[in-house]
Amino acid sequence: MTKTIFIASAEPYAGKSVIALGLVNMLLSKTQKIGFFKPIISQQEPGRKDKHIEAIISYFSLPIAYEDTFAFTRQEVLQHPESENWGEMINTIISKFKKLEEDYDFTVIEGSDFLGEGIAFEFESNAAIAKNLGAPVLTIINGENKSTAQIINSALNVLRNFESREVQVLGIVANRVKAEQVEDVRELLRMQLPDDIMLTVIPWEKALLSPTMREIADALDAKVLFGEHLLSSQVDNYVTGAMMLPNFLNHIKENVLIITPGDRGDIVIGALQANLSTNYPKVAGIVLTAGTIPEEPVMRLVEGLQNIIPIIAVQQGTFGTTTAIGAIHSRITADNTKKIELAIDTFEKYVDMKKLDDKIITFQPEGITPHMFQYQLVKWAKSQKKHIVLPEGNDDRILRAAARLVGQNVVDLTILGDPTEVAAAIKRLGIDLDLNIVRVVNPTHSEHYEDYVETLYELRKNKNVNLEMARDLMTDVSYFGTMMVYKGHADGMVSGAVHTTQHTIRPALQFIKTKPGVSIVSSIFFMCLPDRVAIFGDCAVNPNPTASQLADIAISSAESSARFGIEPRIAMLSYSSGTSGEGEDVERVREATALVKERAPHLKVEGPIQYDAAVDPIVGNQKLSNSEVAGKASVLIFPDLNTGNNTYKAVQRETGALAIGPMLQGLNKPINDLSRGCTVDDIFNTVVITAIQCQQE
């Protein structure tokens, strides 16, 4: 068992960042106290930070000061290679690392990069640092442009070199291996490596290596003429626009960068028009070469367009520009969350997580942290993929969340909307959402439309719904999506980004209906606070629940809490604690508490109790010293919608807590409502919890 791990590569551009991101994400699923240390960083321009360190700290919100994450720049080390100075530097590195290590349960150390002069010194320094820090090594081999034999030899040589310096090697990762070589590399290495060495082979992943328009603009020192807000667009292909327009259009591929002299206005206009057309792939951007820009009429035309793709201008000629772009090595940066998420997904897909976990420390954390909770949620959702319908395909946030959900292989999706309009929106937004994987359904054109109309009529004819009314209602995406769930054509539904709560859940109340024994549909939020996850209910549905309804809400919330891995300790909130208060509202909560104890005697419940006494151990002990709940409540039940809704929003805004939900409870099948102010993250998380609800039906 170890509390540290040293990620080292044996050569340039091996892809250490994929392993570092995946490893930190895995460790944060077990404890929130994770440190990150890179002893030697490359020289940074004044005011700039190491991009990789910045990406790790920013994405995971690690509470580490940037200056504590490294000891020296590479230039500082190379200027003083003498053994005496190197000894002093090692002492400084050890001192800085030990100070960091004291504050964290586990520290990920990343070796230096093989760039520029001093490459011969690089391996020796990494080995020496790993040895002096007592950190076992996970070493990365770059398989790009190598034969199978070369990859095998590189791996075995690196293992021998580390072992000859008495550095323990936990595992070897062969990264960026061609798909057709993967099995051979894995089989041959497994035969020759000791059994205790963990082996991982990761195929070449184009999307991880493709540069963004911003990286290209920076590398070429280009002037950005248009589309600065889309510079995060990824470039997967590039083509030189030196031919006639009709022939050029045949060469457009997905996420293509067009490199053309600035005087080729026909190519510029053709590229812009192709990007708008649903018959052509997405264009990532245009580079105008040779220090020229299109003539004034063309520029005026471009300026008047909406959603212009990035257009940048450089002084170099077309050939030199193309060569320079081909030499760019893309980095995973803090602003590119799509690439960070892909890196983490790649790590989880190919690394034997259980084997790695067995080799490093096993944590026994108290409670559950927000990252642990979110990590577990996605893992649960993936374990048994469910089919979710998203009725609001006309909303950009829904499409962005859908791309992320499909990209991470969390759920199967149906999106309701006009397929042509959805395809155009996907292209306009520049998102990667494969419509061969996601179903886009226009309700009135669906093969199930007539059957759904007939079913709704049969279900609601006793409520004065005639066939024509049913036909009209079934054009409504909320009714159509809910009917998909009712008929088993989808497992659950998430809506509300555009529609009101009432609009979203009305169809569910009409024919999905409540579970047996449940008198009321209610909601909970998973409040991801800095050090724990709490359940808040009901903050979204019921304005003034009776004592009996409050008891049902508490019991349903406790069941949901347990289902999602949070031990339920229920606090029935009021403006007084214990027997100190009087009045109608307090009595209602007191009665509800008694009903919970009667209906579910196995549950830990306290009420009436004030919020501070429920969550603060000191206050809780002062006011209710013998309580199993006071000071450590995990399920907080608010007496009415006014109190609950305002409290969850106040806690969310003032503490920066992540609020996942609302999750509706009590329905026969999972239907969940979004806030109309929801973010892409909110939609993603709500779909994930809906998928988990579907597994438990």
UniProtKB/TrEMBL annotation:
The reply to whether Oxidoreductase figures as a keyword in the UniProt entry is no
Q: Which Pfam families match?
A: AAA_26, DRTGG, PTA_PTB
Top-rank EC class of the record's enzyme: transferase
Q: Which domain of life is it from?
A: Bacteria
The domain comment in this protein's record states: The N-terminal region seems to be important for proper quaternary structure. The C-terminal region contains the substrate-binding site.
Cellular compartment(s): Cytoplasm
Keywords, alphabetical: Acyltransferase, Cytoplasm, Transferase
**Residues in Phosphate acetyl/butaryl transferase domain copies:** 372-691
Q: How does it assemble?
A: Homohexamer.
Associated pathway: Metabolic intermediate biosynthesis; acetyl-CoA biosynthesis; acetyl-CoA from acetate: step 2/2
According to its UniProt record, the EC number is: 2.3.1.8
**A GO MF label:** phosphate acetyltransferase activity
* This protein's name: Phosphate acetyltransferase
Q: Which family does it belong to?
A: In the N-terminal section; belongs to the CobB/CobQ family.
Catalytic activity of the protein:
acetyl-CoA + phosphate = acetyl phosphate + CoA
Q: What does this protein do?
A: Involved in acetate metabolism.
Q: Gene encoding it?
A: pta
- The DRTGG domain covers 215-326
